[in-house]
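Lab notes, practical 5.
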Amino acid sequence: MKRASLALTSIAGLFASSTAWAADMPLGKARPAEGLEICTAFGAGFFRVPGTGTCIRIGGRIRSEFAGRTPFNKTNDPSSFYAEGRLAIDARDETEFGPLSATLRIGFNRRSGNSRFGSGSALRGAFAFGFGGGASSAGAFPSFAGIDTSGNRLETGVGIDDAFVQWGGLTAGRVQSFYDFYISNDTWFGLTNSDVVTQVLAYTYTFGQGVSATLSIEDPKERQRNPIAGIGETASGGILPSTLSGAAYDNFALTYPTAVNPFAAPFLAPGGINYIQREAVPDVVSVLRLDQDWGSLQLSGAYHRIASGGSTLIALGPGNNGGVVVDPLINGGTVSGGYGTVDGNGYAVQGGVKLKLPMLAAGDTLYLQTAYARGAIAYVDSGFARSFQGNANHFGGTTFATYDAVVGPSGRLTLTPAYSVLFSFLHYWTPTLRSGLFAGAEHITYSNAIRMAAGFAAGAACPTCLGTVPLVDGALYNSYSRFYTGGTQYNTGANLIWSPVKALDIGAELFFVRNAMAHPEYDVNNGRITKGYDVWNYRLRVQREF
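Output from the prediction step:
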């Protein structure tokens, strides 16, 4: 009982101290509650838990944002609101083997609109739990669908930003991927960079002179934001038919006969091919880093295993008169997961440098970074796509589809190559006024064989569409297919942030995105052939950390 009373007294004292910090504008030195001991070894804000060697700091953040973008049709909300509260707890000890720390950061948010925050992407991408109520007609707790059936696009979320333990060189838990270097440091929208919080088990060895090396085993699910593609109805443009019948399939089979398709088995259920990414083996990340007075340099590499799910089979059983029949007593006539998997070995490499520029102004920095990946696009660009969908970077008349791999008509898995470059410059005009200027580009390429298959599928699906032409053998081809176009996406922007008092930011950011497609496609919104589309985004932010 005495121990419980002591713990309650400690917690009450900590929250009393936090309240005192929040009341100060600007922030001053907080007085510890009576009976609490200040921990100077770990920096400001730490207090020792009475009777233990553990020092704890409680902090957090409140963020309010308004964002908008240029809409491409009248069903999209051109603006959004976002409010977030984050609680941070940091516990540290000194041990005979080095410092021991545990960090927890949890964010609570409310978002609205389709422009940036409330489209349901956070739920579909598993970045937050969705809660019913308000505009949701489901009213469930929690709701994992990520769809607002009332059309008002409201979401409430809880996200675990960090939850990890560090002891010496060991790191275990949910934390920023060790692969990452530039983590959208100076921009709010995110550039063409890798910025992923994931689950890790890592060890960092420090050689001295600012040189360190890390080997990290990381959760591949956090990188599986871009699915395996190809499988689908030919009548909808799919290049690996899921139904082996119909006019569109028959025309497509003139060029791609089912004899070369290992998935085209008589016992494969229609639409039963599964091209989700399974978690087969963990991602393996290796990092070599140099930290000096002039800045930092980092080289990163990653291995990412791609493996599809098994297909759905028709449940066949022996018949009374010989042969086989469909057995409806076995799972309704189908069995999932036992046939037709494909896999491959993806990888990524990245190099980045951070330069400190005190000759311009105190706090000025310049980041330069480039990355290349094959079968692992999220290692090249994870900052913009926010959900597990191929059309993550879809704007109006263009579809910058992002697939880690594509299964073609032969059933062969082709890994998608991609690369990105960026720079980001932060400048302090005054100690309380700063700006970020940044730009990046990401390029994705699909093979000629995949692109050709997409053209034959598009022609077979729509013989009368603009661009469909017949070939000698009767097969139809359309070069304006929207699938597997590839190309380059350009990001650039700038912001201005005012910090009138310590830990308070008030600012605005303007962000431009352009899709420059490798192949033209038909824009259904304005009725013309296009190879590019531009989008302007803006965001206003008020934020206080404590």
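Observations recorded by the TA: Residues 2-23 form the longest helix (22 residues). Confidence is low (pLDDT under 50) at residues 1-30, 115-120, 129-150, 384-397.
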